[in-house]
């Protein structure tokens, strides 16, 4: 997800301080992955440089506090981003696939690797299911998204386990190597 676009979208409701933007971002999108203040201010500096936000200073007893406001160019940028479909990721360079092949190449037990990974996926699915049950609609939607991806990974783990002997025969030294993955 584009943090810059998310911050711009949050600014459409009105000017805000950087710490308010961080809090709003974390509440809506940061479940388990809160932004660091440095990332917020670095992103705001880039948006300012690109003319997508403007700074409004608030004089006070201490140093001036900055409020950030979206510009018309920022509104146009967010609108374009929202209407542009995300590129589906086919995950052709999967770390799981690489681990399975390397386990087979090095004489390690790929079945154990697959079983361990399956257990970790199931643990995370249980955690997400609990969070979904206790959460609001936003939690339910984000958990559903993650659960569907984990289910697809589990299907792949099962299919790979069923084909492990075939894969092992293809990766042994002297056998025909696996063809390279096509993008």
UniProtKB/TrEMBL annotation:
Record lineage: Bacteria, Bacillati, Actinomycetota, Actinomycetes, Micromonosporales
Organism: Micromonospora rosaria
Positions of the Transcription regulator PadR N-terminal domain: 7-76
Signal sequence segment: none
Domain of life: Bacteria
SUPFAM superfamilies associated with the record: Winged helix' DNA-binding domain
Database matches in PANTHER family: NEGATIVE TRANSCRIPTION REGULATOR PADR, TRANSCRIPTIONAL REGULATOR YQJI
Name this protein carries in UniProt: PadR family transcriptional regulator
């Amino acid at each position: 997800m584009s943090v810059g676009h998310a911050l711009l979208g949050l600014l459409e409701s009105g000017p805000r301080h950087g710490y308010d933007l961080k809090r709003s971002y974390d509440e809506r999108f940061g479940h388990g992955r809160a932004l660091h203040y440095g990332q917020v201010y670095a992103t705001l500096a880039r948006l300012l440089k690109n003319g997508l936000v403007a700074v409004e200073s608030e004089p006070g007893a201490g140093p001036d506090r900055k409020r950030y406001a979206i510009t018309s160019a920022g509104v146009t940028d967010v609108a374009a981003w929202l209407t542009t479909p995300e590129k589906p990721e086919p995950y052709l360079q999967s770390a799981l696939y690489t681990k399975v092949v390397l386990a087979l190449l090095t004489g390690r037990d790929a079945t154990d690797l697959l079983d361990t990974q399956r257990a970790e996926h199931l643990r995370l699915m249980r955690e997400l299911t609990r969070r979904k049950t206790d959460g609001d609609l936003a939690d339910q939607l984000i958990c559903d998204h993650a659960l569907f991806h984990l289910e697809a990974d589990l299907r792949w783990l099962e299919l790979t386990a069923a084909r492990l002997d075939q894969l092992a025969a293809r990766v042994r030294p002297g056998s025909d190597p696996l063809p390279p993955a096509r993008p």
